[in-house]
Design goal:
Elements: H1 13-38, H2 43-68, H3 74-88, H4 90-96, H5 100-129
Length: 144
């Protein structure tokens, strides 16, 4: 990924922060639904929860991409999108995998890719709002 310059904050920074708040709310909802799905009483209930999780995940992806699309550097945006596609390619591999050792390897790879994805997103957001980017991915329960 290319070095991302730090830009002056613009009036649209508050809009980005609002999108980040929505993103945090959706992420929290997804976590809640995942817990509910794990304790679902029957297939119908579990299916409905999964449908809602899919909707929330799609909305989450839309917000992330709307934020990323604000970045002025096309190469940075494409690098982020390529990493997102790489992560998405793990889904069928994981579903088809029956070997526990292979599953461990895939989990390690996807965890590393997700960590890089989070970091790239944070660098992109930092550049958009005009702050110095973190030196590594920052994860916490609250983004604010």
């Amino acid at each position: 990924m290319t070095e991302t310059p730090v830009h002056k904050p613009s009036e649209s920074s508050s809009d980005v922060f609002e999108q980040l708040r929505k993103l945090a709310e959706i992420s929290h909802d997804i976590e809640q639904h995942a817990r509910m799905q794990a304790s679902a009483c029957n297939f119908v209930q579990a299916g409905e929860i999964k449908r809602r999780m899919d909707e929330l995940t799609e909305r989450q992806n839309q917000i992330v991409m709307a934020i990323v699309d604000r970045h002025p550097d096309a190469e940075t945006k494409e690098s982020f999108k390529a990493l997102a596609r790489k992560i998405e390619e793990y889904r069928p591999q994981i579903k088809a995998c029956e070997d526990p050792e292979e599953l461990k390897r895939l989990k390690k790879e996807i965890d590393e890719a997700v960590e890089e994805w989070i970091y790239q997103f944070q660098v992109i957001v930092s550049a958009i709002v005009g702050v110095n980017p973190p030196s590594q991915a920052v994860q916490s329960d609250s983004p604010f």
